[in-house]
Amino acid sequence: DRVFTAATRPANSSHTYAPLNGAAVMELTLIALIVAGILAGWVANALADDLPQRRNPRLPRYPDDTPRPFIAWLGILAFLLGKRASPGGAKLSWRHPIAELSTAGLFVLTYLTAGRREGVDSLQLVYFLVYMALFVLITVIDLEHRLILFVVIIPSYVIALLDAVTTSFRPDLGQALLGAAIGFGFFFVAYLGGFLFTRVMGRMQGREITEVAFGYGDVMLITLSGLILGAGPLLLTMFITVFLGAGGAILYLVVRRMRGKHVSAFTPLPYGQYIVIATVIMLLFSEQMRSAFLT
Q1: How far apart are CA 83 and CA 91, in angstroms?
Q2: Distance between CA atoms of 183 and 120, rounded to whole angstroms?
Q3: Do residues 181 and 193 make contact, with C-beta atoms less than 8 angstroms apart?
Q4: Share of residues in the chain with pLDDT > 90 (%)
Q5: What is the mean pLDDT of the chain?
Q6: Is residue 7 scored above 50 in pLDDT?
Q7: What is the pLDDT of residues 86-142, one digit of tens each?
Q8: CA distance linking residue 74 with residue 93, whole number of Å
């Protein structure tokens, strides 16, 4: 990385070389993260199309199962280039470009916050970015199908355990396992309580209520949060989750009322996105959240 000046460069050299400055490195890094995030979002979209249907992952297709042309593989390009619909008229949902852009945004946010935190090396940053892509996949499937799939959660457990073992940033393996146990314990009790509540209410109303307030997938998802965050941050994560879930439910009921639609106390609402949001908040802004709650 030498700089050749007019006095010192070789006689046969006609160029001056200088290292990239900090601003240029930052710009290139952000561009690379945006591209990587869009591609990760594309993968999440493809998996969200196939995994809930118990299909092996395939190349991108339209909703009517028509293969998408190469230039329309990315949701963003499909919308920009007029390739949103298949020849039969089946249109891609807005979920495709939104998921790609959201993943890119999360990649950039992760780098600008946790990625520049003391103790976070390159390997730890890679783990954080993988978590963001997994969270997008989990959220999309949960919102569309009210499912949190074991085929996604179990590999995520393995990644989180590898993170705890191979990096020095918190949590260590013991704290990760303790966080997983605490998350599983608290939410499993809530899961059983949901079953008891629906059974009692069903008997009181003289009808069978098949929907439960809390799914087992939510239990598995908070367990993943415990592995990623560790015991201490998980407690605050659960508090934020409950707060977000209550606010989301109230907002949903208000909007339904304003639109004049029927509102049932037993309407099932996806809960996974609140766990994901709370986990991302604690992963990227743990110090700020601790300060806010302790002061």
Answers
A1: 9
A2: 25
A3: no
A4: 65
A5: 88
A6: no
A7: 999 999 999 999 999 999 999 999 999 987 788 889 999 999 999 999 999 999 999
A8: 12
Q: Which two tokens stand for residue 140?
A: 């999309």
Report which of 171, 180, 178, 172 is spatially closest to residue 219, judged by C-alpha positions: 180
For every residue of the chain, DSSP letters joined together read: -----TTTS-TT------PPPHHHHHHHHHHHHHHHHHHHHHHHHHHHHHGGGT----S-B-TTSPBPPGGGSSHHHHHHTT-SB-TT-PBPPTHHHHHHHHHHHHHHHHHHTGGGSTT--HHHHHHHHHHHHHHHHHHHHHHHHS---HHHHHHHHHHHHHHHHH-SSSP-HHHHHHHHHHHHHHHHHHHHHHHHHHHHHHHHHTS-----SS-HHHHHHHHHHHHHH-HHHHHHHHHHHHHHHHHHHHHHHHHHHHTT----TT-----HHHHHHHHHHHHHHHHHHHHHHH-
Prediction pTM value: 0.87
pLDDT band at 213 (very low <50, low <70, confident <90, very high): low
User: Would you give the distance in Å from CA 246 to the centre of its chain?
Assistant: 20
Query: Which pLDDT score is estimated for 289?
Result: 85
Tell which residue, 168, 146, 173, 143, has the closest CA to residue 157.
173
User: What are 262-266's contacts with CB under 8 Å, separation 24+?
Assistant: 266/198, 266/201, 266/209, 266/211
Beta bridge partners, 67, equal 61
Mean pLDDT (whole number) for 15-19: 60
Residue carrying structure tokens 């339209």: 62
CB 217 within 8 A of CB 148: yes
pLDDT at res. 6? 45
Amino acid type, 231: A
Give the largest CA-CA distance in the chain. Answer: 95
CA–CA gap between residue 45 and residue 92 (Å, rounded):
11
